[in-house]
Design goal:
There is one protein chain. By secondary structure, the protein is mainly alpha-helical. It folds into 2 domains: about 120 residues; about 160 residues, no CATH class. About 80% of the residues lie in helices and about 0% in strands. The C terminus is likely disordered.
């Protein structure tokens, strides 16, 4: 039954994506409002799907690629709705919602089988660590979308082509402010995710840190975002530099999330958890 709600949520997200694209083309507020309503409905059905899968499996749905991608898309949509409710950033949905759609589509292509948890994952730290890390990833995904918008808008201004795209995107100041807010929210969560993961590792394997590939790349990701935060606070980095660094950090984060889990063997590999 959870898969039924999941599939309906994908369809509604798709309709919402079309709506946000139409809003960018027409600049009509009512189109954006309808797209947001559809997105909220899809988010509600997606939430039901996650809860039903949790109940069906008897454990938190964070243990394979299907679960992780699904929750990541859910977190991106939920945080976007919260962000838009607070900030009303123009045309943001046309960048964020398609990303969530791509992640949901990737999730739908994975095995949906519910299997028993391995002993190492039977811990209260599973939902705590997973939720914190995936929410941090979702926040950095929003920051990356904002960084892309910033670079597009800056190019328009630099080339003095203040045409249709310029009118449809937020100001550089608004986008830079969003980047800063996402960093100040996401970095503490990323740090807490690494700390909770270390505590869980000690409980499961007897060591806080073993230089597992996922641990190593998580630390690399942390250093990149720490450098960005440091440069913003002490050097006053803004604008283009911050946007490019945000995209670099997000590229490394994607590799940490997917590349390491799928390509490198280790305790965090999806391929080895269920052998």
């Amino acid at each position: 039954m959870h898969n039924f709600f999941f599939q309906i949520a994908i369809f509604i997200y798709f309709v919402s994506t079309i709506g946000f694209f139409m809003q960018v083309i027409t600049l009509r507020k009512d189109v954006e409002r309808i797209a947001t309503i559809f997105l909220g409905a899809g988010f509600g059905l997606h939430t039901i799907s996650l809860l039903m899968r949790w109940l069906a499996g008897g454990h938190p749905p964070f243990v394979n690629l299907y679960d992780s991608l699904s929750f990541l898309a859910w977190a991106i949509v939920g945080l976007f709705l919260l962000f838009q409710w607070q900030s009303k950033l123009k045309s943001f949905g046309a960048f964020v919602v398609p990303l969530a759609m791509v992640i949901m589509t990737g999730s739908s292509l994975q095995s949906k089988a519910i299997v028993p948890l391995p002993p190492a994952l039977r811990s209260i730290w599973l939902p705590i660590h997973a939720i914190i890390c995936l929410c941090a990833d979702a926040i950095f995904a929003l920051a990356a979308c904002g960084a892309v918008m910033f670079l597009i808008q800056e190019r328009q201004i630099k080339n003095k082509r203040l045409g249709a795209i310029f009118q449809r995107l937020p100001s550089l100041e608004a986008l830079d402010s969003m980047n800063r807010r996402c960093l100040t929210w996401g970095f503490p969560l990323l740090t807490l995710g690494i700390v909770t993961g270390s505590i869980w590792a000690e409980e499961a394997w007897g060591s806080y840190w073993s230089w597992d590939p996922k641990e190593t790349w998580s630390l690399i990701t942390w250093f990149i975002y720490a450098a960005l935060l440091h440069q913003r606070l002490t050097v006053g980095w803004r604008g283009r530099k911050a946007a490019i660094m945000t995209l670099v950090g997000f590229a490394v984060l994607i590799f940490t999330f997917l590349g390491v889990s799928l390509l490198l063997s280790g305790a965090h590999s999806y391929a080895t958890w269920f052998k």
